[in-house]
Write a structure and sequence with these properties.
Structural class: alpha+beta
Distance between the termini: 53 Å
Bound molecules: flavin-adenine dinucleotide
Number of strands: 22
């Protein structure tokens, strides 16, 4: 083993979606960073769908961008089809989503990372965690090199002891075409971590020329961007198309169920319930006569189409049969088969709110390895882990993300307080205060934190302060202006709250009174006025909850010594070691009575420490 000469502040293992964001954040904050990944040609590769965003995931991408991360910018540059999902619903659930040119996305990410001064990128496969006295100090590779670092962020995705399934055919792999990561799991177990198995699946990709588009419903994209800063697109837009499974599809799948790796019991790992395979859907929703399928182009430099909604672990010959039973796909030519993958993950209860492991100091985990699924969830965790690894390496205090401030906070809190029994993905319903955590105000919520961390420039900060100031001033101004309508004098701020009015209509009807600040600011003013009552109620709820969040639980606190605390509560609290009483309240099975007892014990401990 050869010891590499440089000692890094932060070493990120894995150049997927979590790894790229972690490496970028750590380096941008001034930490000397190494991104070590198995294959430099697959940086930020999209293992599954060629798209970024979607319900709640789009919120995460906007938050990452607001904090100075890169996923949103890369998605904009490579975007070929943008849509604001739930546009007709309330502002809390509107979420941007883009189809991207997946090769361009990876290429843009690699080029962007290559230009970051503090960041070195190297090809290598990590096999062994080097640690001393429960603190990690480096990572050794298959190629015979040891890299030393103060903090290590592991983001190995679906690769740890990855096993691929296509019907009864199985082989090892991190995803189709990539080798699995062997050895690192054992090293993590040796360091004291507990691992489990999860699974996920992906559909087939077919050739564009084999699709009969004439019978399909077309869905065009819209204008829109993720990033609050640059507005750059490098690709021409492309449409998506919609089709449906048929009775024949159902029959073929039902007849071949025993050939599915999932149904024959070959796969032990648990898969995502909300993103089921087609065989799963046919069995669970047997009464449904059809399922919607989106045909999504994988880019402008390829003819591959992704069949969204048809993920399966059935063998290739059955895939060909059932895909050809779908209108428009009668002559489908499969270029890449669908498959399922099973992999190791680090089970719940082993992480702190910084995504550092409780057992090994300086070891951070982010992405699929923590039991999540999705590029955006991975990138969000990468950002949090990268920031905190850099802070620790530079001996600065940690940064916590709170549920009341961001979806990032919601996700991290869920990961550290909940028992995960299937791959975790974000939904808007997971957030208690979703009217405050809108995708459109992510910059107003999070830019100040990004600035404090050194991820956001003075110019970006000035821009958001100016925006905030304009919104506040305009809301005030609209409360002082009146118009005469239906024989009554009505203040403009009240008129905008009516369901039949919006900012655009107000500009049209009262051009001398209204000021057009542009879509972004106009929308904020309108939303803040229309939903003022709900927003202020949610803000009051947060203040109440903050009292619980303010009560910190010391890391070394011994729950087993708390008199009167139920054994189940002792076991759960010891396992998850929540950082605050607020986090403790969200652990399933913890009752208000447990919290009262805990509060008294913490107050007693606090007094003892003072005396
Ligand atoms: P990845 O993107 O997997 O990146 C891991 C990186 O680590 C890779 O670059 C790899 O080369 C590198 N690496 C691994 N081991 C080592 C090592 N030992 N040393 C150095 N480098 C290493 N998501 C969804 O949201 N919906 C889905 O339906 C879905 N289906 C999927 C189906 C399949 C078959 C697969 C493979 C993935 C699917 N995903 C799906 C998951 C999605 O790909 C991941 O959630 C996301 O990519 C996770 O990001 P990550 O950064 O954690 O890991």
């Amino acid at each position: 083993m050869w010891n590499y000469s440089t000692e890094y502040d932060v070493i990120v293992v894995g150049g997927g979606h979590a790894g790229c964001e972690a490496a970028h954040a750590a380096a941008k904050m001034g930490a000397r960073t190494l991104l070590l990944t198995m294959n430099l040609d697959s940086i930020a590769k999209m293992s599954c769908n060629p798209s970024i965003g979607g319900t709640a995931k789009g919120h995460l991408v906007r938050e990452i961008d607001a904090l100075g991360g890169i996923m949103g910018k890369m998605a904009d540059r490579s975007s070929i089809h943008f849509r604001m999902l739930n546009a007709s619903k309330g502002p809390a659930v509107r979420s941007p989503r883009v189809q991207v040119d997946k090769h361009l996305y990876s290429q843009e990410m690699k080029q962007t990372l290559e230009k970051i001064p503090n960041l070195e990128i190297k090809q290598g496969t990590a096999t062994f965690l080097v640690s001393k006295d429960q603190k990690c100090i480096g990572i050794s590779t298959l190629e015979g090199v040891t890299y030393l670092g103060k903090c290590i962020v592991i983001t190995t995705g679906t690769f740890l002891e990855g096993k691929i399934f296509m019907g009864h055919t199985t082989f090892t792999g991190g995803r189709l075409g990539d080798m699995s990561s062997v050895g690192l799991s054992a090293s993590l177990v040796e360091a004291g971590l507990t691992l489990g198995r999860l699974k996920t699946g992906t559909p087939a990709r077919i050739h564009k020329r084999s699709i009969d588009f004439s019978t399909l419903e077309e869905q065009e994209g819209e204008e829109g961007f993720f990033s609050f800063d640059e507005k750059e697109k490098k690709c021409e837009p492309r449409s998506c198309h919609i089709t449906y499974t048929t009775e024949e599809t159902k029959k073929i799948i039902q007849e071949n169920l025993q050939k599915s790796a999932l149904f024959s019991g070959l796969i032990r790992g648990v898969g995502p319930r909300y993103c089921p395979s087609i065989e799963d859907k046919i069995v669970r929703f047997a009464h449904r006569d059809r399922h919607q399928i989106f045909l999504e182009p994988e880019g402008i430099h390829t003819d591959e189409y992704y069949l969204n909604g048809l993920s399966t672990s059935l063998p290739l010959e059955v895939q060909v049969k059932f895909i050809r039973s779908i209108p428009g796909l009668e002559n489908a030519e499969i270029m890449r088969p669908a498959y399922a993958i099973e992999y190791d993950w680090v089970t719940s209860g082993q992480l702190l709110a910084t995504l550092e492991t409780k057992k090994v100091q300086g070891l951070f985990l982010a992405g699929q390895i923590n039991g999540t699924t999705g590029y955006e969830e991975a990138a969000g965790q990468g950002l949090v882990a990268g920031i905190n690894a850099a802070l620790q390496a530079m001996k600065r205090p940690p940064c916590f993300f709170h549920r009341s401030e961001s979806y990032l906070g919601v996700m991290i809190d869920d990961l550290i307080t909940k028992e995960i029994d299937e791959p975790y993905r974000l939904f808007t319903s997971r957030a208690e205060h979703r009217l405050l955590l809108r995708q459109d105000n992510a910059d107003l919520r999070l830019r100040p934190l990004g600035f404090q961390l050194g991820m956001i420039s003075q110019a970006q900060m000035d821009k958001v302060q100016d925006k905030r100031q304009k919104i506040q001033a305009e809301k005030k101004r609209l409360s002082t202006l009146y118009v005469s309508l239906e024989g009554k004098s009505i203040p403009l701020f009240q008129l905008i709250c009516r369901p039949d009015y919006n900012y655009e209509k107000m500009i049209r009807e009262f051009p001398l009174l209204m000021i057009d600040y542009g879509k972004e600011i106009n929308e904020q003013i309108e939303t803040e006025l229309k939903y003022a009552g709900y927003i202020s109620r949610q803000e009051k709820d947060i203040v109440k909850l903050e009292n619980l969040e303010k009560v910190c639980v010391p890391k070394s606190f011994s729950y087993k010594d708390v008199l009167g605390l139920r054994n189940e509560a002792k076991e759960k609290l010891s396992r998850f070691s929540p950082p605050t009483l607020g986090s403790a309240s969200r652990i399933s099975g913890i009752t208000p009575a447990d919290l009262s007892i805990l509060l008294v014990a913490l107050q007693k401990k606090h007094k003892e420490n003072i005396l």
